[in-house]
Known about the structure:
Helix content: under 10%
Radius of gyration: 17 Å
Order of helices and strands: HEEEE
Structural class: mainly beta
Number of helices: 1
Largest sheet: 4 strands, antiparallel
Amino acid sequence: xxxxxxxxxxxxxxxxxxxxxxxxxxxxxxxxxxxxxxxxxxxxxxxxxxxxxxxxxxxxxxxxxxxxxxxxxx
Length: 74
């Protein structure tokens, strides 16, 4: 990889070697979604794997979407 920046590479990539996200795979009827913890009561969708093409068009499964674990923000 070639990286051009006005900053030293040590500053740009600081902490990169310690990045270890915790992903969880949540199955549903046609496939699964991969999520990561966003807060103590919410998850963020990272990716989708489904056998139904319509799931990829469904905004509920969009990567980046936040899923609240507590209903009504309790």
